Amino acid sequence: MKATRSFSMVGNPNCGKSNLFNRLTGLTQKISNLPGTTVEACSGSFSIDKEKYSIQDLPGIYSLFTKTEDERLVVEHLIGKGANKPDAILFVIDASNLRRNLLLFSQVSELGIPTACVLTMEDTAIRRGIEIKLPELEMALGVPCVFFNPRKEKNTDTVREILKQPRAPKLFGSDTDLLNRLLLYSKGKTIAGLSEETLRRYIDIEKIIKQTTIKHPVGVKSLTLKIDRWVTHKIGGYAIFGIIMMALFQGVFSLATKPMEWITNCFHWISRGIEDILPAGMVSNFITHGLLVGLEGVLVFVPQIFILFFLIGLLEDTGYMVRASFITDRLMQKVGLNGRSIIPMVGGFACAIPSIMATRNIKSKSERLATMLIIPLMSCSARLPVYVLLVSVAIPFKQFWGPFHAQSLVITSAYMSGITLALLLALAFRLLKRKQTQSEFILELPTYQKPRLQTVLQQAWLKCVSFISEAGKVIIVISMILWFLSNFGPSESMKRAKDEGAILSQLDSNHASEICTNLRLEASYAGHLGKFMEPAIEPLGYDWKTGIALITSFAAREVFVGTMATLFQSDKDKPSGIIEKMQAEKNPSTGKPLYGLPYALSLIIFYAFALQCMSTMAVIKRETESWKWPIVLFFAYGLIAYLGAYFVFQLSTLIQ
Amino acid sequence: MEATADLLLQGEKAKITGLEDGQFSQKLAEMGCVPGTEIIRLYQSSRGSCIAYRIDTYLLGLRKEEARMIKVMPFVPDPLPENTV
């Protein structure tokens, strides 16, 4: 059924817009791009008297004259640039903050779009001694208004009622030429007299507030202030931030382990089933070793990503993340970033892709770019399986270096080297770029509130779905290409491998299939590629098998583990198999373990720095609107990773 | 006796009298820093590089340089009954 009318939700940040949206649309919502743009917005539908209405939740904005990417695209959507101007607006006003909310209303009113108005947070307003006379407000604004508390009320009938008849708002500003000026502004022209205009608007708003509200004297006691005293304390604040971050990672890793096992098992079960049903051959091999491996590579990370999004969502919903920006701004500013960078940087530990998109609310262009460029250095969840495999191979589990558990120490150092390099590069970037765009940090610190579980869960889930479809496409395609490369090769060498395999497997019938697969792989295009690379990666301590794994993991880093597993033909159900086999390999010239500590450290450093993620490159291209940065980053981080790995390998070989 | 918001002491109340002309005056105005509004300095991050204020009814975090652009008149108790706004 086609929607009768399309609504867009407009309002300040933190006004309760998304909660209201959830109440209205329930389970009909999905994340999609705003028509003609790359801004993601939630859309959904609801019905009144059996008629269907579609509604879109837009990012919160303070003003139509705005500089951040996200906000600018909201404005373009409202003025109908791109496509699909909304039929009507559902304007959400935070009643406890009427003055500032009405500024945006006064600008939006001049777009002449029929509007209906919901006032949230009436309880907070009453606590602050503000009483709003609704009929008077309706008269003054010229649009239907209603109080609604989306945190407590479930029944949205009153809201639906006013949505039946949105009306064009009364003009109360003195601006006659808003649309033209908005268009000029969005093209980057400076508009004279903007702050004067804003002040004029406030004078008009003041009149409306006088007519429509009564102020009762109350004493203000605020829990928010009490909490803030702790979380912004000059020492305690950082300690709390540190503890929260540690808890976050512990949560992600410990909660995700089981679901990740389930997914892996599920895929094994499916691929066994397919091998049983289909006759052995090209098709079955392609499905189980090409397609399913690729799908598994995507889906196995969904639990981690979901949990991380959920926990970060909780922190944001309570209002804590803004305080983290507040206390870290000073350090961030020193290296050319912004307090706001901290949120996407933390997110980078889960996955760079959504985090790069989250940089959109950093206003300064150079700070936003710098944040985007260093996010790939935050060790994302895809590197973790690689780190874990390598430390397990090279370091006995019970080994301690001084008071430290050796394995954890190495993994922690990998994270720290990423962060350190990120901050250093941000600093270098700041020094290199002579012309800085003006930096600012004007940030509302919202009142703390209990997070709405349902909203946060739903948002996390929607982001996961968007991750699966965006990253999934790339990873599946690449893994299919890899399947081809490792199963086909120059016909001559493939034939030789086959003959050799036949002879050798007669000699050692216990390991026949292993030997054949190994030989075939060596003869395949992937094997040729690995051999071709060997001279380049030898100084880093890698052999040709690692070379193949390096190539395959350019699709997604965690593919490294799968590739090594295939190369060593171990049973994937028993990860100890591959660890033991790797430990047993000896360097033919020195007799020392081939995959020893220097190898592991060198490879961990390589993975910590190198940009081995197609999806990240694609999203950087999308956000910077050019291939320049992804290509520069690919080579720059590749070079740093190479040099770092070389240095670490040579040094640790010397020490050993 | 006019001052700027960064000079207020912790917990000190003042009234905004105007904004210094500059890059961010528009943004500050949009965020509600307009003449006549009450402003209280609340807390700060380490070394006072960022300062939190209560402006009207909500909390706003600013860098010191931005706070310097807000002209204020420190609050002297009004002899007349307060305007019921």
Write the layout of secondary structure elements.
The complex is a heterodimer of chains A (656) and B (85).
Chain A lengths: L4 E7 L5 H9 L4 E4 L6 E9 L2 E7 L11 H10 L9 E7 L3 H12 L5 E6 L1 H6 L2 E3 L1 H8 L3 E3 L9 H7 L14 H9 L7 H19 E3 L7 H9 L4 H42 L4 H18 L2 H17 L1 H15 L7 H7 L3 H6 L7 H10 L8 H12 L5 E2 L2 E2 H27 L9 E4 L7 H35 L3 H17 L4 H12 L1 H13 L6 H9 L6 H9 L7 H10 L12 H13 L4 H11 L3 H28 L1
Parallel strand pairs in A: 1-4, 1-5, 5-6, 6-8
Antiparallel strand pairs in A: 2-3, 3-4, 7-9, 10-11
Helix pairs in contact in A: 3-8, 5-8, 10-11, 10-12, 11-19, 12-19, 16-18, 17-18, 17-25, 17-26, 18-26, 20-21, 21-22, 22-23, 23-24, 26-28, 27-28
Chain B lengths: L2 E2 L8 E7 L5 H6 L7 E7 L5 E6 L2 E6 H4 L2 E5 L11
Antiparallel strand pairs in B: 1-6, 2-3, 2-6, 3-4, 4-5
The CATH top-level class label of chain B: Mainly Beta
The separation of the N and C termini of chain A measures 71 Å
Read across the widest sheet of chain A, the strand sequence of neighbours is 2-3-4-1-5-6-8
The CATH homologous superfamily of one domain in chain A corresponds to P-loop containing nucleotide triphosphate hydrolases
Mean pLDDT of chain A: 82
CATH topology of chain B: SH3 type barrels
Helix content range of chain A? 55-70%
Total beta-strand segments of chain A = 12
From the spread of the alpha carbons, the general shape of chain A counts as elongated
Beta-strand residue fraction of chain A? 5-15%
Ranges of chain A where pLDDT stays below 50 over 5 or more residues in a row are 570-575
CATH superfamily of chain B: Ferrous iron transport protein A (FeoA)
CATH architecture of chain B: Roll
Class inferred from helices and paired strands of chain B: mainly beta
Question: Would you summarize the structure shown here?
Answer:
The complex is a heterodimer of chains A (656) and B (85). Chain A has 28 helices and twelve strands.
